[in-house]
Amino acid sequence: MKRMKKYKVLFILLFYIILCGKLNAAGEVIDLETEKSRINLETEEIETEGNVTVKYEDYTINADKLKKIANKNILSGSGNVEFSQGSQIIKADNFIFDMDTKLAKIFNSESYDSNLKLRYGGEETLSLGNKAIFIKNGWFTTSPYEKPNYKINAEELEIYPNKKAIARNIGFFAGGKTWFKLPYYVTSLKPSTQRATLFPYIGMDSDRGLFGIMGFDYDLGPLAQGFVDFELSTKQKLALKVSNDYSFWGNNSGNIFVNRVVVPIGNHKQEWDFKWNHKVTNVPKKAKEDRKFYDAGYGIWNLNYQNITTNLMYAVDGAKLKDDYTAFVDKYRHIGFWDMNINQELGQNGEFNAKYYWTQDKHALKALTDINDKIMKDDDLDPRRTDVDLYKSIKYTNGNKDVEITVDNEDFRDINPGYVGDLNSYRKKRNYGIDFRGPKIKFDYLNSDKDEYGELLGMQDRGDDKTIHWVQNVAYDKRKEWGLTFGNYYPFRESDFFGYQPRTSYQNLTNTLYFGAQAKQVEIIKKEYEYDYTRDNENYNALFLNPSTTDESRIYKVYEDNEIIRRPKKIIYEKYRSQRFNMGNDRIDIPLRESFVGYNLAFENRDYSSLPVPEFRNGRKVEDLNSKTGYKVARDASGDTIKQSPSMKIFTLDTRLFTTIFDNTSKNNNKYDVKVTNDATVSFQRTTADSATYGGYDIVEVPTNAIGLRNDFNYHIGNVTFNYNLAMRDDRHFMDHWLKNRYVKNYFKADIANKRFVSLNFENNDEYEFKDFKSERDFNREIQYGYVSDAGDNFLYKFSDKNKQLFPYNTSLGWNQKIYKESLKERSFGINFNEWGFEYTNTLNKANDIYGNVATFGYPALKLKTNYHKLGFVYDTSKMKNKKFESDHYFRVNLGFGKKIYRDLKNTPIITSDDRYIRGNDYTTIGFLYKYENNAKPRYAADLDKKEKDREAEIIKSENQIKDVNMVKNSNTQEFSINNANKSNIDNIVVNSDNRLFLSSDEEEAYKSYVEEENYRQNKFSLNDFNAKLQNLRSHKKYFQIGMDMQIDGSDATNPSGMKGFDKINDLTFKVEAGYLEKMFVRYAFIMERPDRIYRNDSTRNSTFDFRKHEFEGKYMFSRDPDKPWWVGGKIQYVQNGAPKSSDPEIYESSWYAKKVNKLTLGMVTLTHRFENVEWEIGTGMKWDKPSNKKLGYYPVVSLKFGVTPFPEKNVQFNYSGKGFEFGAGL
Q: pLDDT by residue (tens digit) across 1189-1206?
């Protein structure tokens, strides 16, 4: 048996080469079981018999006998040979395999795949590895039974994996006789998007009229392999679909794909969708040490290009641009994209990286993005799904022991900036460097420009209590630098060889002593914005006093007002030259084990060019959009620009002390290993400057006088670790020494064997903009505790407390600078234990402001205070330890509620006598979701029963439920909804959220594939629409799912709700679905969208309420024979107070001019029958619609479908609706 180990891999390799073509089993573990074996050590002949079983990963092979022929690398097996892997089972009488030539013969084989629902086999099979398979007297069938009622026989079958299959002299056998014969049949084995329509496909639709499609595959060598489809139609005459694969030089391959091109005959508009992708895979021809700097090493190049006419494109809601956005299509004819990614080794240490995603049609792309953004806004969808970023990036590094060259260039454009996650709307960088390593001389050049976006706490979109927008914090940040660096040099270093230790005091002091120098020329132009929604801001004050401003903008931070009220906080315009000299010592050992000190001492001199002096107002530079400096320039009495040439000297000292206080880890027989270390760094900075101020304010950014401390203490005992980290820094003004910033951090963590820990983190930061004026204060606390037990329990507790206070700096209206103008607090704690999770968050925001129009009005008064609570609870049995039942249960509930107090100004902002404070309830949000699932055996499980216990395979993956503790947090800190619960995989796909009820991960992928197919195919009909595909995925499950999301309007004294019960609800989504295998499916959904109560009775509205929709769908099997089932199904959709659109009338418009539409917008009944794997369906009903050039009204809908379920493209389908007739037929 020991010698048999030598051939374990070969035995597995036999079957894998026969069926799949390759296997790399080196180093893998393979189990072999047999009752009896005989080994001849001289001839290496091996014989085993008696229930031989080989297991490798998810492969299992069984045979009665296995033999290796003497002195030859030939294996043979016989007697009930069976191979199973995943959903596939192969049975045979015996086999022979030549391990040298990779030729194999299998006799009387039968294969079955439960996923494809395809069974095939033959008397004699010859396998040429992954090149070809030849079957003599073969057959195949789609029947699921071991004794199929029908099959197709073929005298010869030729299978070329991933290419094509050829059958000769075939006959259709059913009912005990052959019904018809064909001399020849060929089909492509490529995916449906990569193969020709080999048999005619005919159809009719509104775009093309009557059409037919037929094509051919071709293989003319490595440069020309692909297919061509021809489409003839009554409207568009001739269209082509072409795909060509090519390869050359061994490392280059690619594809040219024309998804559609209309031959320009007559006056037909141009249509094309062209794609090209090319891949280069480089393997080095020389060893790394032998390469020149230009020799290529390993590399992968992916080059892609697409160009598509706009009349073939779709908007984000799935509407064709040529139907609903004709102005765009007429103006912009096509859009092209380059998409490239290159990673290439060069020389011995070089690397070239390039990323390129750009378009030559930026105006067209911007117009298309504007269309999609508007759709997302109108339909209240997340606009981040339409975010478009363009970028160019090139990075190159190369060098050797003598010289190194670096290039880092970048261009970035965000077509629609300002949404959450958008850090920049543009970035540009040009960075070059060359480093001469011998003399240690380095030259650098940098030219960069960018803006920055970020979050504004408490901001909201108009009419909404949440936002998806960020604001521009930095308008521009332009930097241009030239630098020349010398060093660092170690003049006294005696040796660099490994293991060298200084032996004398002199060597200890000098061996790591260094010095260096740097010269730079710097230009900085930058402007930062501040968003202050109080009368401390003159821009907001103007908005506040404007009589046309609503009280909503006077009380809340409204996103639409942000560009009006923002003001520049910091404007920088400076050019200088600097010379810097530094010296220090990396390490000076001290008389403690593994302990040392180090220091770095630096002197810098800066000389500024003559700079225009800015004009200041309340200590800040006055903005001037027409000045190249960005600020308003100060002038003397004669009107001339005042200029100054600052100069400054900066001294810095950084010292480090690393101490090993105790360490016994090098000793043996310790009761406990103990190691105690401390790492302390003290920093000091001192600045002196001339001509750097004007009128008591800094005209350039002057480095501060600073002192800082960072200390890291670690205590290790056994498997227990204690860590304490302290960080402190004080920054003071260089001349008057007033405090500018003070930061303190305390962090502690205790850890036991990486299984149990507790940590505490306390941070405090105070910012001072001017002397005795604290502009901002942040104080944050965080506590965490967690463990993983030996029994497998997981526990995590987390508490956080975040506090921010903002203070006014303009005292002209009576502000007291010691009283904050805004306070933001957020406290949360969460607990997770195995399948249980809970989190609570409390957000308390307060804003003060000045009222009236007298400068000495007095202290600020409360403007707005909100106190909001969020709770979330999750229960997920998929994370349960030692679960003893097969079913999965998932339950999630979240609740949000709060109170608010605000100052009611009565739209008289300068009159305070009628002001009063209003107390009320904020919005209440309620949501829950429950899912139950019990996976049943698949219908085609007869051949898999024997292997079920060994493989423990999942035929259908479990639903995509919560996998980590952070999801509990998401259910609270975000607006958690049913429609958003599983978006991660299809954020960029056009979706109707109502059709994505509780999708699991595999169902998400099916939906993504379906939408992509629908958008890019040549409109070939498919037997199964997405709902049918979805039900097919769920047909093996017993499941029940119910969920709801609801928002209840708030109320206060000024705007009392006057409503009770159901009328107080603004938005509501309720869905319930249940299914029992293939026998039954039922779904009901109710969706309601209506405005806040204060808008419902607006005189300009034609509808008191907005949109409500009911949907019911069901399907029921009434046949007693599960092998020949009948189903009856139906779908009803009813809309109340909806406003019809020409493109989709059942969708509502959230508009103040919404008109009432109370209609049954869809009614459909279907009858379906399946026998073997053939299925047909008939459906009829009515739909409320507005087809092109027709009136809005009811139109009949009729559909007929017939097809082979494993092969959806083999079907016949007919549809009739108000748009006319459509049909298709593929053989």
A: 677 778 898 988 887 766
Q: What token pair was written down for 681?
A: 């760094």
Q: Token pair for residue 1092?
A: 């806040």
Tally of residues, the chain = 1227
Could you read off the pLDDT of 243-265 as tens digits, one per residue? Answer: 999 999 988 999 999 988 888 77
Report how far apart, in Å, the C-alpha atoms of 650 and of each of 149, 575, 690 are: 92, 17, 12
Most confident option among 354-368, 457-471, 1041-1055:
354-368
Distance CA 811, CA 404 (A): 56
CA angle 208, 211, 217 (to 5 degrees): 120
Which SS3 state, helix, strand or coil, does residue 663 take? Answer: strand
Q: Compute the 3-state secondary structure of the chain and give helix, strand, coil in percent, each to the nearest 5.
A: 10, 55, 35
Task: Give SS3 for 297.
Answer: strand
Q: How far apart are CA 22 and CA 37, in angstroms?
A: 28
Question: Closest Cα partner for 590 from 655, 684, 682, 667?
Answer: 655
Q: By the 8 A CB rule, do 1004 and 982 touch?
A: yes
Q: Coil, strand, or helix at residue 359?
A: strand
The 3-state DSSP class for residue 456 equals coil
Helix (H, G, I), strand (E, B) or coil at 595: coil
> How remote is the C-alpha of 65 from its chain's centroid?
52
Peptide bond just before 980 cis, omega within 30 deg: no
The token pair that represents 604 in the structure block: 């810098």
- Over the stretch 257-309, which tens digit does the pLDDT of each residue have? 998 888 877 666 788 999 999 999 998 888 888 888 888 889 999 999 999 99
Beta strand spans in 1021-1090 (E): 1037-1048, 1051-1052, 1065-1076, 1080-1089
- CA–CA gap between residue 63 and residue 55 (Å, rounded): 12
With H, G, I as helix, E, B as strand and everything else as coil, classify residue 367: helix
Q: How far apart are CA 53 and CA 1063, in angstroms?
A: 69
> For residues 902 and 865, is the Cβ–Cβ distance under 8 A?
yes
645 contacts: CB under 8 Å, gap ≥ 6: 607, 608, 609, 610, 611, 691
d(CA 293, CA 278): 26
1225, 1212 in Cβ contact below 8 A? yes
Distance, CA of 799 to CA of 761 (rounded, Å): 10
**Residue 178: which residues within 8 A CB-CB, separation 6 or more?**
153, 171, 172
Dihedral of alpha carbons 812, 814, 817, 822, sign: negative
Helix (H) or strand (E) holding 13: helix 8-19
- Give the pLDDT confidence score for residue 1190 in this predicted structure: 75
Write the pLDDT tens digit of every residue in 838-872: 999 999 999 999 887 765 455 688 999 999 999 99
What does residue 1195 show for φ and ψ, rounded to 5 degrees? -135, 140
SS3 1218: coil
Cβ(687)–Cβ(650) below 8 Å: yes
Give 115's DSSP letter: T
Residue 1184 to residues 342, 936, 1132, Cα–Cα distance (Å): 52, 39, 12
Q: Which amino acid is at 56?
A: Y
Which one, of 1115, 920, 1144, 1130, lies nearest residue 1035 by Cα?
Answer: 1115
Residue with tokens 């009338």: 1145
Strands 557-558 and 459-460: parallel
- Residue pointed to by tokens 């002397």: 771
Give φ, ψ of 380 to 5 degrees.
55, 45
Is residue 53 within 8 A of residue 34, CB to CB? The reply is yes
Specify the residue for token string 């306070």.
823
Phi, psi of 593 (to 5 degrees): -60, 130
Question: Looking at 470-484, 600-614, 695-709, 1043-1057, which range is the least confident one?
Answer: 1043-1057
User: Of 117, 18, 26, 8, nearest to 68 (Cα)?
Assistant: 8
Confidence at residue 1015, expressed as pLDDT on a 0 to 100 scale:
37
